[in-house]
Every structure is written in structure tokens, then in C-alpha cells.
Amino acid sequence: MEEIVRAFTHVINQGQAMYWATSRWSTMEIMEAYSVARQFNLIPPIAEQPEYHLFQREKVELQMPELYHKIGTGCMTWSPLACGILTGKYEDGVPIYSRAALKGYYWLKDRILSEEGRKQQAKLRELSTIAEKLGCSLAQLSIAWCLKNETVHCVLLGASTVDQLYENMQSLQFVTKLTPHILSEIDKILGNKPVRAREPVTR
Questions:
Q1: Is the separation of the CB atoms in 5 and 36 below 8 Å?
Q2: What pLDDT was estimated at residue 202?
Q3: How far apart are CA 149 and CA 74, in angstroms?
Q4: What is the rounded distance in angstroms from the CA atom of residue 41 to the CA atom of residue 2?
Q5: What is the pLDDT of residue 26?
Q6: Which Gene3D superfamilies match (predicted)?
Q7: 41 or 95: whose pLDDT is higher?
Q8: pLDDT tens digits, residue range 18-34?
Q9: Are 156 and 60 in contact (CB under 8 A)?
Q10: Is pLDDT larger for residue 109 or for residue 4?
């Protein structure tokens, strides 16, 4: 870890970068990098890039807030549409033009067609009614939901067409429409809201 932190400090001191950040690091690794930076007067990472979407919540909602408040680590999330699963296009199987149909994406196809994948599609059908009520697409609802989290400082988008990118960017206008009541409805449908384990009581 010391080698990694020294290397990025050197890159920044040479003027080749302004900051450095991590991606898919554990909280323990991030804290270790921060401790090494403090110990040797080096530059720590400023942000972590975790996966975050309606079906992947625990790290961003339970661990990242603690890191942010303790050492100021920002949060840049990726895959807000879960590789396209949250667009609703896999409701009736895997379309031939989709990413899951491409060579090398068998893992995604298997994930979609699995029992868990079918359960997720059923939940997405319920979420579609909320999206219709708000006047947005399921994809826009999914991205807006990520942006609504105060711990999330940036959501990284991926799009294969200009129209798709434009639609995704329109998600911004629906963030304020996600009221506590709507968020509660979403949580009820998903049934996966992370809960922090209680500390054991010692007597």
C-alpha cells in the first residue's frame, strides 16, 4: 500500500495528475491508504468509485457515509442501470441487439435468466408504475434514485447512442420528485434496504 500511495503522490507532484482515487476498494484498503498518506506526509485518494444501483446498495449506503464523515472520501458511483438491466429491456428475455446477447457477456445473460434475475424483472414491473406516475422512464427513475442519495457526489453514465445519453441526462429533472413517500414505495418494492448491524451490548 505504501508503494501505491507513494507512486500516486509522485505522479501528482510531477504535475501529471491533480488527484487520485480508487475503484472497488474495500473500506479497509481505503483507510489503509489514508493512514499511510498521513504517516509519510503523502497524498491520499480523494474518492472511491463503487458500483451502485437499485439492486446493489450496501457499500454506498452503509460504508461510504462513514468514510466521507471520517476522512472526506468522495463517492463516484458507476453502473446506475446495472448493465442495462434497469432499463426494462430484458423483461421478455434477452433481445438480440442487447449487450447481454454479445459474445463475452454470457455472465450477464446468465444473470438475467437466472431465478434471481426473474425476481428482479418482476420488481422492475412494479417500479415501472412509479416511473409512469412521475412521467419518466424506468432508466431515468433508476438514475435519479442514485443521484438522490446525498452520499453520492457523481454518477458515471454509459450510453451507446446520443439519444440514450440525452434521455439519461434528463434524469436530473426527476431527482426532486423523489419524495420520502416515493422513496419509501421504492424500498418496499425492492425489499433490499441495507440495515446497519447493531453493536453488541456489553454489561
A1: yes
A2: 60
A3: 13
A4: 11
A5: 96
A6: NADP-dependent oxidoreductase domain
A7: 41
A8: 999 999 999 999 999 99
A9: no
A10: 4
Residue environment code for 171-190, b if the CB has 16+ CB neighbours within 10 A, otherwise e: beebeeebeeebeebbeebb
Residues in a beta bridge with 78: 51
Q: Which of 164, 183, 161 is nearest to 174 (CA)?
A: 183
One-letter amino acid of 198: R
How many Å apart are CA 4 and CA 145, to the nearest integer?
34
**CA–CA distance from 99 to each of 51, 145, 160 (Å)?**
18, 23, 10
Residues 6+ apart with CB under 8 A from 65: 151
- 195: closest CA among 54, 88, 58? 58
DSSP reduced 3-state for 5: helix
Residue carrying the nine cell digits 456489553: 202
Cell of 30: 481505503
How many CA atoms, within 13 angstroms, populate the side-chain half-sphere of residue 16?
Answer: 6
Least confident interval from 19-23, 73-77, 197-201: 197-201
Whether the Cβ atoms of residue 45 and residue 72 lie closer than 8 Å to each other:
no
CA distances from 72 to 16, 33, 45, 66 (A): 23, 13, 10, 9
Q: pLDDT digit string (tens) for 50-67?
A: 999 999 999 999 999 999
